[in-house]
């Protein structure tokens, strides 16, 4: 056993730094994976900067997502050489995570890489993209159909938003993209948005009911934004809520629920049961245009994570960032 390159948070309150981690100190698990790619999600930004108590075990290798090849396994579903994806389950929070060349995890946490999808593509999608797919599946499950009208996507130029727009447009939905970055209008249209909305329209306290405007929504912003889009959701529509980029509060009224039968659909990716994960990844293999995925993706080396972490929290990262680690 040797050492491998990793980003390490040594102690609570200490900054993350690139270093070497002893393979013998990897945590328990029945599958050891050679990590090829990871990514930078909003939560990774919080973990690296220490802006929120995401990391709850020290020392920690942060990183909530990886794609790689199984090195060794005692789990019945996996053998050496299998290509796998991991999203969440506490990796990078309570279990040693993805920003290192090796990871040892429970096989029950892993999803096989869909055929035809590369490890790099899987991390270009990452937790943000897989969560966007869970949101779309939640809207479908609630009966929201393309013919019902426009779907609003908030935090549109971010990771969840960018993938949600691309998937929804491929499925035939009309998409309105809400963004604070007017300069990204062409980018958002290239992903499939047919209307760009200034996010300032949704940032003030919401009326109990607004004009019925959207058949549904994918919201990664929370707070007044979510309250506003709920108040503008048409009779019988639904909004999938997965994020808190503007805040964790929800200063809303029950009026949309009790007068318009609107549904608020909660979406969690971290502990999402395996069958739904597998379904989401299968859908991502077919319902996300790879050309659009490539257009929204930037690649960085492992040491680039520290620089990008504060930027994603400041809403300055467009689309998705993949981190090349090994392979
Ligand atoms: P990004 O930073 O890539 O995207 C967030 C976007 O939100 C920004 O690009 C920006 O979009 C918008 N935004 C940022 N700050 C504000 C603000 N103050 N007011 C209004 N809009 C704002 O992050 P991700 O896409 O990776 O994640 C988005 C959110 O979803 C995060 O809160 C994250 O924690 C959550 N999340 C939750 C998951 C779950 O399991 N429930 C899984 C994955 C993510 P623009 O510039 O277009 O306005």
Which descriptors apply to this entry?
globular; alpha/beta; 9 helices; 25% strand; Quinone Oxidoreductase, Chain A, domain 1; 2 domains
What does the secondary structure layout of this molecule look like, with pairings?
Layout: E1 3-8, E2 17-22, E3 31-39, H1 42-49, E4 65-73, E5 83-87, E6 102-105, E7 111-112, H2 119-141, E8 151-153, H3 159-170, E9 175-179, H4 185-191, E10 195-198, E11 214-219, H5 223-231, E12 233-241, H6 255-260, E13 263-266, H7 274-287, H8 290-295, E14 297-301, H9 305-313, E15 320-324
Parallel strand pairs: 8-9, 8-11, 9-10, 11-12, 12-13, 14-15
Antiparallel strand pairs: 1-2, 3-4, 3-6, 3-15, 4-5, 5-7
The protein binds NADPH dihydro-nicotinamide-adenine-dinucleotide phosphate (NDP).
Low-confidence segments, ≥5 residues, pLDDT <50? none
Straight-line N-to-C gap:
19 Å
Nearest-integer average pLDDT: 97
- Cofactors, ions and other ligands in the entry: NADPH dihydro-nicotinamide-adenine-dinucleotide phosphate
Query: Count of DSSP E strands?
Result: 15
CATH fold type of the largest domain: Rossmann fold
Fraction in beta strands: 25-35%
Order of helix and strand elements from N to C terminus: EEEHEEEEHEHEHEEHEHEHHEHE
Helix proportion:
25-40%
CATH architecture of the largest domain: 3-Layer(aba) Sandwich
The CATH homologous superfamily name of the largest domain equals NAD(P)-binding Rossmann-like Domain
If you compute it from the alpha carbons, what radius of gyration comes out, rounded to the nearest whole angstrom? 20 Å
């Amino acid at each position: 056993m040797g050492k491998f390159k990793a980003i390490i948070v040594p102690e609570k309150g200490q900054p993350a730094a690139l270093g070497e981690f002893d393979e013998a100190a990897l945590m328990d698990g029945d599958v050891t994976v050679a990590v090829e790619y990871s990514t930078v999600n909003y939560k990774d930004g919080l973990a690296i900067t220490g802006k929120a108590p995401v990391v709850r075990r020290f020392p920690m290798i942060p990183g909530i997502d990886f794609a790689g090849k199984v090195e060794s396994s005692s789990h019945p579903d996996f053998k050496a050489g299998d290509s796998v994806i991991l999203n969440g389950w506490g990796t990078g929070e309570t279990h040693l995570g993805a920003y290192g060349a090796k990871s040892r995890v429970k096989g029950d946490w892993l999803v096989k890489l869909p055929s035809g999808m590369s490890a790099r593509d899987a991390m270009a999608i990452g937790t943000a993209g897989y969560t966007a797919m869970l949101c779309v599946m939640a809207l479908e499950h609630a009966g929201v159909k393309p013919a019902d009208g426009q779907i609003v996507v908030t935090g549109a130029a971010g990771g969840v938003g960018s993938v949600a727009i691309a998937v929804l447009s491929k499925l035939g939905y009309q998409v309105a993209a809400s963004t604070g970055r007017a300069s990204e209008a062409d980018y958002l249209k290239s992903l499939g948005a047919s209307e760009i909305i200034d996010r300032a329209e949704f940032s003030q306290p919401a009326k109990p009911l607004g004009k019925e405007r959207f058949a549904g929504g994918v919201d990664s912003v929370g707070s007044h934004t979510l309250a506003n889009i709920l108040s503008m959701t048409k009779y019988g529509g639904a909004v999938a809520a997965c994020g808190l980029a503007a805040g964790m509060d929800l200063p809303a009224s029950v009026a949309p629920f009790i007068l318009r039968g609107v549904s608020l659909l909660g979406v969690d990716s971290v502990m999402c049961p395996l069958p739904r994960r597998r379904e989401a990844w299968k859908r991502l293999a077919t319902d996300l245009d790879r050309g659009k995925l490539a257009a929204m993706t930037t690649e960085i080396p492992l040491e680039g994570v520290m620089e990008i972490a504060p930027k994603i929290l400041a809403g300055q990262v467009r689309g998705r960032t993949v981190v090349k680690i090994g392979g």
